[in-house]
Amino acid sequence: MLLMIDRVQKSYPGGRPVLRDVSLSLDQGQTLALTGESGSGKSTLLNLAAALDSFDGGEITLDGTTLSPLDDAGRAELRRQSVSLVFQQFNLIPSLTVAQNLSFHARLAGREDADWTGQLADRLGLSDLLARFPESLSGGQQQRVAIGRAMAARPKLLLADEPTGNLDETASANVLDLMLALVADTGAALLLVTHSREIARRLDQHAHLAGGHIT
Amino acid sequence: MTGAVIQALLSHWRRHKLQLVTMLIGIALATGLWSAVQAINAEARASYQRANDQLALGLHDELRNPSGPIPIARYVDLRRSGWQVAAILEGPLRLNGRTVQVMGVDMVAYPALPAVTQIEQSETPPDPAEILTAPGRLLVSPKLAEVLRAQDSLPPILQSDAVPPDLILTDIGVAEVLLEKPGQISRLLVLPDQPRGIPRLADIAPELERIEASSRLDTAQLTDSFHLNLTAFGLLSFAVGLFIVHGTVGLAFAQRRAMVRTLRALGVSMRRLVWMIMAELTLLALVGGTLGLILGFFLAGALLPDVAATLRGLYGAPVDGQMNLQPQWVLAGLAMALAGTFLASGQALFRLSRMPLLTGAGLQAWRGSAIGHRTSGLFGLILIAGGFTVGYAFDGLIAGFAMVGGILTGAALILPYLLSLALSAFQRGASGPIAQWVWADMRAQLPGLSLALMALLLALAANIGVGTMVSSFRLTFTGWLDQRLTSELYLTAADNQQGQQIARWLSPQVDAVLPIRSVELAHETGPLFLYGIVDHQTYRDHWPIIASSEGVWDRLHAGEAALINEQLARRANLWPGDALTLREDHTLTIAGVYSDYGNPTGQAIVSMPQLDQIAPGAGNRRFGIRIAPERATDMAQALRDQFDLPRQAVVQQAAMKAQSLAIFEKTFVVTSALNILTLGVAGFAILTSLLTLWTQRLPQIAPVWALGLTRARLAQLELLRSVLLAALTAVLALPLGLVLAWALLAVINVQAFGWRLPMYLFPTDWAYLFALTLLAAFVAAALPALRLLRLPPADLLRVFANER
After folding, report:
1. Quick one: B264 and B345 in the same domain?
2. Of all residues in chain B, what percent carry a pLDDT higher than 70?
3. B183 touches chain A (CB under 8 A)
4. Looking at the complex, does the CB of residue A89 fall below 8 Å from at least one CB of chain B?
């Protein structure tokens, strides 16, 4: 199993529980949509899976590594090597060009492959934008760069948090198509947080978070 | 409505307390350093004015004898023929290792002096006859009275706070005895209301010159250059402090754009908002300004004693070493704080007032752009060109400072563009992704940090420039002292008669006895001290001549020529080959010019027979003694024993040099202190910029952290970034500092003091300053880096949160 979340608990500062004994799993090549109301803990669960945050109870295993004993450096190493992230706010590095952003994660992971990055740029329609900076791109273009950055590192797991939340309907459909196609081509697993039932329907599995539990 | 708007505006500062503190510190530092310099200048000038008022100086015309003292017989002639003149005898007196000025006046004829009036109106006034008849009375300030109390040999002392510091005011008869100048008069004061029909001066005393009150150089004029130098440094410190205010206000206003937009949408007019923000700025300026004044007062109090010692040493200016709080100084300081705050906030306020109602929050706009860099760079180039043009086209100290100001401001404006170019080049050369990101991120941060870096550039350039000037001066001065102070012993006899006895006693026992004799003459450029020298190899081998003609010493001793000091040469534009008129009937060719550091007045040297011819009867109490160095100490003691001389009457060369160097070092205490303070303020500007930029940094750092860099690594990179930017700025500050050093040595010093110095380079000092800069940048970045290191992941995750 690539990702195993086993009875994970997490409370916000102040003690309010957000996740209560949440469990789910995801295997290589699988896609899973995580839905829920605002504040239900979807993003928190995704952050825990990405080793961005620590949990209060239970265990998460990613690519054979249990997360709870890892220190800051161990978590960073796991993020570099096994996971890629796509956020709603794009979160590109504003000081780097599109080309530099695309290859950034792959280079951090020591897996830079110029041919693959070039192919990604072509497929994502970014070839003419490589010398530009993120602030000069539209929202849809920026999100395509974010997907390209994530996939250039050939991750085992792609974690996407509302990747189409800031985009209009056409751009949204376009971005989702590309993401699913790339995941299918590379054999990566995808955990995608969304509000949209329509998007959720396009993925292999669907989990709904409510009251801190998977329903 | 006003109350609600005030509440909304002030809520910003409640949420951004550090920003508020930073802004107040910025205003306080700018005002404090400026006000300290102004307080020192004002205190010194007030001392000069007090001395003028207390001694009735600068009010009346004077009669002087260009050849030396005025004989008493001539005074009698003038009085008998109806001239209303008052005699003055003055000179230095060494007491307890301290030099004080003695001013003896004809108490009967001299205009009413405040000190005398004060004593006469006291509860126990002395009998006027006691002041006029032996042993007389000495009028001194309470401070000097304490020092003189131990001296039994002096006449009784009367205290008055209407006497300048370090001055003994007494009747001329008492002064004659104290100064051992019987029958001599230094100058005559021409009293107002002269009777009609008195004979012309040329008929009754042809050798005397009448000098109008308005044409005399007073202390305030003599010290103008010194005060202008201090003012320039104060202004630099003020500007560096304002960089902090500018940066903080810019960010605060940018952060409040959303609030301003909301307030306007709720019906508050832009005009009302601008007025209220201006009122807010006024309040902040007054609070910061008051803090600055407190800082300035204590700083000035700490620096004033050294400045007073310098002014006394260099110009003989009477400056009290104590600070007094002046209301006008407080008002001027607050006005400066207000002006500075509005100057630093003007651009941000203007932008805010022109912001369309529906525009975005626009933090990016505050951070500037590459186009802004290019424009300011171009403007900087124009300023530098303008500065050089003014420096070359016009003479004078003001033009010199305008040149320096243009170069410094221009260079500061070019800095962001140059840094941006350098960072681009480094980014292109970087191979790893982290290195590439670090360089690119530094470039992106540049607009937010550029003001602090400009402040750092100015502070570093000032340090390098002034440091190079002072060290070049020290090196030159030390070498010059070695040339000028060649005698192993320097002796001052009690009077001329003892001087002759000592010279006779010494001659067979030492290598040479070199008399040091001089008189004060009047020259069109101001007072001129004429020295006579005997023909001795010491002068030929060592005298620090900087321009000479053929056979300079032979012509001098043949009575054909004179040497003049650099100050006189530059002031009167006299060089070898030109003629120097010493008296109406006495003109000599200038054979050479010598350097004469630390002396504000003109000086000339002629052969001893020439001096006797021009000014017969010049004192013969001082001598330089050439002797084998190992015999100097014994000989000094032998002289003291043989002639009952006080210890300080025979001084060894090393002590004399140490004394001169001590005066030299004191001269630059103030500039060094201001230099270090300015660098400190620049370091603080970096810290405040980094702290105010902190909220902007998270969105840039969080994605990199999410991609797999630890917070510890990111914190290290934050430190590295700050150190690298400071290092690049320091590298660019070096050529600027050297240009500044050149301007100070070749332009400002020549205009201010009348001497030009060779420029030496001190790479070790630069290395030390460079290390200090890196340390300052490291310390400034340590706090933000520590914050990053301890930042909970939840705070970083907030950057990615969808429901922000």
Report:
1. yes
2. 90
3. no
4. yes
Are B366 and B409 contacting, i.e. CB atoms less than 8 angstroms apart?
no
Residues B609 and B507 in one domain: yes
pLDDT of B216 higher than 70:
no
What DSSP string describes B378-414? HHHHHHHHHHHHHHHH--SHHHHHHHHHHHHHHHHHH
- How are beta strands B62-64 and B138-140 bridged, if at all? unpaired
Tokens of A1: 């199993």
| Residues B711 and B602 reside in one and the same domain | no
User: Same structural domain for residues B71 and B171?
Assistant: yes
Question: How far, in whole angstroms, is CA B384 from its chain's centroid?
Answer: 24
Most confident of A37-41, B352-356, B665-669: A37-41
In whole angstroms, what is the distance from residue B720 CA to residue B629 CA? 57
Residue in B24, B454, B419, B448 with CA at minimum distance from that of residue B250: B448
Number of domains in chain B: 4
CB hemisphere CA count around B114 (13 angstroms): 14
Q: How far apart are CA B263 and CA B110, in angstroms?
A: 73
Least confident of B345-359, B699-713, B741-755: B345-359
pTM: 0.71
Q: What is the pLDDT of residues A47-73, one digit of tens each?
A: 999 998 889 999 999 999 999 999 888
| Predicted pLDDT of residue B358 | 55
Residue with tokens 């010093």: B749
- Per the CB < 8 A criterion, the answer to whether B195 and B110 are in contact is no
**Cβ within 8 Å of residue A23, ≥6 positions away:** A5, A6, A7, A8, A58, A214
* Judgement on whether residues B51 and B148 belong to the same structural domain of the protein: no
CA-based nearest residue to B252, from B569, B628, B691, B699: B691
Question: Is B381 inside a domain boundary?
Answer: no
Tell whether B384 is covered by a domain.
no
Q: Please report, for chain A, the start and end positions of each structural domain, with discontinuous segments joined by +.
A: 30-37+71-214
Domain presence at residue B287: yes
Both B612 and B553 in a single domain?
Answer: yes
Q: Pick from A67, A83, A89 the residue to mutate for testing the B interface (most B CBs within 10 Å).
A: A89
Please tell me the distance from the alpha carbon of residue B693 to that of residue B784, in angstroms, as a whole number: 9
B803 to chain A, minimum CA–CA distance in Å? 8
Q: What is the mean pLDDT of chain B?
A: 82
Closest residue in chain B to residue A37, using alpha carbons only: B803
Task: Say what the ipTM of the complex is.
Answer: 0.82
pLDDT in tens, B728-777: 999 999 999 999 999 888 888 787 777 777 888 999 989 988 998 899 88
Q: Does B709 touch chain A (CB under 8 A)?
A: yes
* Range of the structural domain that residue B211 is part of: 61-215
Q: Which residues of A touch B699 (CB under 8 A)?
A: 91
- Let me know: does B528 contact B555? Beta carbons within 8 Å: no
Which one, of B27, B2, B682, B690, lies nearest residue B345 by Cα?
Answer: B27
Q: Are residues B663 and B569 in the same domain?
A: no
Question: Chain A interface, mutation test: which of B800, B803, B804, most A Cβ atoms within 10 Å?
Answer: B800
- Could you tell me the CATH superfamily of domain A30-37+71-214? P-loop containing nucleotide triphosphate hydrolases (3.40.50.300)
Side-chain-side CA neighbours of residue B324 (13 Å): 11
How many residues in total does chain A contain?
Answer: 215
Per the CB < 8 A criterion, the answer to whether B528 and B571 are in contact is: no
In Å, the largest CA–CA distance within chain A is 50
Q: What angle do CA A113, A117, A123 make, to 5 degrees?
A: 150
Q: Name the CA radius of gyration of chain B, rounded.
A: 33
B654-687 burial: b if 16+ Cβ within 10 Å, else e: eebeeebeeebebbbebbebbbebbbbbbbbbbb
pLDDT at B675: 75
